[in-house]
Amino acid sequence: MTADAETVAVMGPAHGAAQHATRAGLGPEAMLSFLGELAEHSGNVLFVRGVDGRYLFANTAFGELLGRSSEDIVGRTTHDLVPAEYADGYVEHDELILRDGQTRTVQETAVDGAGQVRHFTTHKFAVTAPDGRRFAVGGLCVDVTDVVVERHSRFESETRFRAVFDHAPIGQIYSLVGGPIESVNEPMARILGYRPDEIVGRPFADFARPAELDRIKTAAATLLSGQVRSTSAIRRLVHRDGHEVPVRVTSALLRDESGAPQWFVSMAADITDEERTQAELASAHAAAVSSSQRLRLMHAIAAAANEAGTADELAPRVLSLVREYTGWRWGALVAWSPDGSATIRYPHGALPPEALAAVTRLVPATDDQVTLHEVVAEQVDGVAVAVVPLLDGTPPARQAFVFVPPAPHLTEDHRTLLTLLGIEAARVVERESTARRLRDSEARFRAVFESSPLPMGLTLGDSGAYAAVNDALCALVGRPAEELVGHSVRDFVHPDDAARTDPAGAAALAAPDGRSTVELRLRHSDGHYVTVIISLAWMDGPDGVRQLLAQMHDVTASRTVEEIQRRQAEEDPLTGLANRSQLSRLLAAHGRAGRSCTALFLDLDGFKAINDTHGHDAGDEVLIEIARRLRAAVRVGDLVSRIGGDEFVVVCPIEADAVAATVAVADRIERALAEPVALDSATTAVTASIGLATGLVDPRHPQALVQRADAAMYQAKRLGKDRLEIYTPELHERTMTRRRTENVLRNAIAEDRFIVHYQPIVDLADERVVGVEALVRLVDDHNNLVPPATFIEVAEESGLVVPMGNWVLHESCRAVVALRERTGLPLTLSVNIAARQVARADFAQAVLRTLAETGLPEESLTLELTESALLEADVATLDQLVQLRDRGVVVGLDDFGTGYSSLSYLRSFPVSHLKVDRSFVAGLGRERGTADGASGSDDLAIVRSVIRLAEDLGLRWIAEGVETAEQRDVLRSLGRGLGQGYLWSRPVPADDLLDLLLPASVS
């Protein structure tokens, strides 16, 4: 086929267009021109797309649609020109037509050059070559956008209408003019109790009340006449179950395009709840009007009751008010006498004689017939009566308001009214009764007040001045009534108690029961004070003025006893200072408050000597004087306490930066103690060892501060007494070491971890062993021996030396008896005795019991005491030593010459031998001096003097610490005595002594 023929085929829908053109006498060029003109002037969009989807032809209308020229379209694909969502559909249609060759009309959408969506009805056909080959798709597009938009708008409008119609909150009905119901929504169907399909097709008259049909027809005629556009009315439609439903119906007429009437449309709202609410409002309004009238009446009755003082004053007013409100024909106040006869008073209205007689036959209500304010409605001889008892709090009622209503059955309104009348009348009766009782009570109170043995005073208002007092109060304070009336209790109260007088009255006023109590001290006319507990009670006086009644109970004697008991519990009976119990409470309070304090622990030096020299009465005088000086030296708020014989503790609360203030207190205490104390005609110097500790009081261990001060005091004792030592961390460490040692001692006593070593005592003349000295050793947790110097001092200070010493005495006696039996030697035993041991009241008996239990003869035991132990001994201790001496026990003086070395001790105490201290023996046989400055000749002179003194007094002597032959020879040259030391043996266990004892010589 030629190019011209193919072009003609493209431009024409029939494949034989070329032949037709030839027969018509037109050449191909003329035919193409004809077809082109036809495509341009057809008014429709024309196009041809090839099998590859590219446009082969597009007329001007197509180009204008897309905003392009025809030349710009040809050669492009559909996807080049329109969005893919539309182009995909075009291609799908084209492919279908190319496959089957069928002409199709399809709906297509495009976007014009302005970006607006356009809708088309497109007639598509296959373009076929002469040989039958389909090589393109032609299309003729008719723009139907306006039709589609209109159809869509109509659909949306109908959809909205149906939604409004179906889901409207009120009922809707569409009826043909002169015809049945065509449409009804669900709310309308619910109003009538039917399904919508049960209503459609029926006339509206089926659902209206017959009585309203004429009014409905008139309303329809009015709408048809065009006089109004709508009508509205309250109709009562008939529900499926037969009851009537009130609805508010609004109707309108709808006409067609020509103006002819077509439908009645009605909207109906169920107003059942609205009518019910209106009815309730109307009822409430009527009730409110009635309630207002009733309230005015009740107010008038209450006002009359407030103004009336008696039932007689109340009756005329309320009888009139009740009859005026109720319209009842008669009312009166009826009173019954004790014999039951009735008296009618203040009658209001008129009654026939027979009805009046019936009222007089009423009997008073009894307690099992009526409760407070109960209204009784009954018939008496055919006469209806309403009885309102006038109760004063307890039945039976002896008065009542009686009314004659039309019937015995009272309305709730009338019963409420009469109940209120009973309540208000009861208030009047109760007030009348109260006034009568008050008059009687006032008379009784006056009689009780004046004759009561309990002191009483009465004040008026808030003045505080007594308006009346009884004789008992006058006797209590020793003053006549004239001196008390017009005066306040503040004029007689102790100055320290004055601040509590006004708050006591205020507390009573604020208390729920108007009462309170207060304890005060009142000054007697002779000057002494009496302690009273005053019970205060506010009362209303007969004239309305408030009165304060004060009733007093004399507790002077009991408070005196309590004060004595308090002092006994909290004060030292000798000095009046705080005792240990009060000190503990104070420290605990400081601990809870988180307060810092300084504690000073004082121990008098040599106080025992004062007791021994001047007697215990003199010692008491010294303690009293020291207590007075301590009180004078401390500040206000500081506490001075006596916690033992001659031990005092001062506690000074301090601020964190005020330690210097308590040091100043300590200085004043030292200066105060420096002054001698006068005893009879003589004076004696008293010094003290003082320990000072400062810090925060531990609430868990409040005594720890005093314990630290105690440790510092012991340090002062060790350093020579008569001094003040401040607790330091180093002292703390020593204290802790001492405590650890003390714990070790306690455990050793409990676990029997002591052993005894023995050092031989020899006769210096021939060096025979004549006895042994028992020396205790401690075995520690590691089975090592602890030397005595480590624990003896702690044992003595802690008192553990007593059980330890008792064990050593018993064990050494047992061991020496065993040695005597094995060796046949009459060995003696020397045992060191501490001051605390010998001070015990049972010391002598304990020693003798030990000797009896072990079998050691009394004369074979020597008890060695230091000079300091003898210094602390009292008369009782001396008696025990004498008792032991008389039984044969030897008492020796250890370390003679190192202590006070008073010759009076040798005369006063039952001492049998002296022990020359090792410090003097060490210098014997040396020509040069010792480190302490003493020369060998000095030591020799001292030893010679001690030995000569002992021999002159008939005492034996023992030299200890003999370590060299030279020392032995010097001692031997000075006289006949005994010796012990490393020269012969160190202290060893008892079994190790056998090698020394069996030869009977250690030479």
Automatic annotation (TrEMBL):
Domain spans labelled PAS? 31-101, 157-227, 441-497
Q: What is the lineage of its organism?
A: Bacteria, Bacillati, Actinomycetota, Actinomycetes, Jatrophihabitantales
User: PROSITE patterns under this entry?
Assistant: EAL, GGDEF, PAC, PAS
Where would I find the GGDEF domain in this sequence?
595-729
One Pfam match, by short name? Answer: EAL
Q: Which residues form the PAC domain?
A: 231-283, 516-567
Organism of this sequence: Jatrophihabitans endophyticus
Question: Which NCBIfam families does the UniProt record give?
Answer: GGDEF, sensory_box
The protein's name: PAS domain S-box-containing protein/diguanylate cyclase (GGDEF) domain-containing protein
